[in-house]
């Protein structure tokens, strides 16, 4: 994609985020695990104020404990310093 000056424009994917998982020894174990960003809304929906945006760990990012996750919806700007929950339930069969 080229802009007016002939420089390449950087593509920005709003549903993809880089997440740092604390206390990780092996990032590959977290691949395809589900992640939830839980936040509190102002109005009730289905009888509760808490809502969540679901995601899945897609691949590692670099050599550190950072992973790339793809969320179902765009994350709000307040989620930059927020915490996410990692669910350990989906286990890949080739990890055994």
Please count the beta strands (DSSP E, at least 2 residues each). 5
Low-confidence stretches: none
Biggest sheet: strands, sense, closure?
A: 5 strands, antiparallel
Kindly estimate the percentage of residues that lie in beta strands according to DSSP.
35-45%
Shape: globular
Q: Quickly name the level 1 CATH class.
A: Mainly Beta
Count of helical regions: 0
Q: Calculate the mean pLDDT score and round it.
A: 81
Order of helices and strands: EEEEE
Radius of gyration: 16 Å
The side-by-side strand order for the widest beta sheet comes to 1-4-3-2-5
CATH fourth-tier homologous superfamily: translation elongation factor selb, chain A, domain 4
Write down the domain tally: 1
Question: Which range best describes the helical content: under 10%, 10-25%, 25-40%, 40-55%, 55-70% or over 70%?
Answer: under 10%
Topology-level CATH name: Thrombin, subunit H
Oligomeric nature of the chains: single chain
Distance between the termini: 43 Å
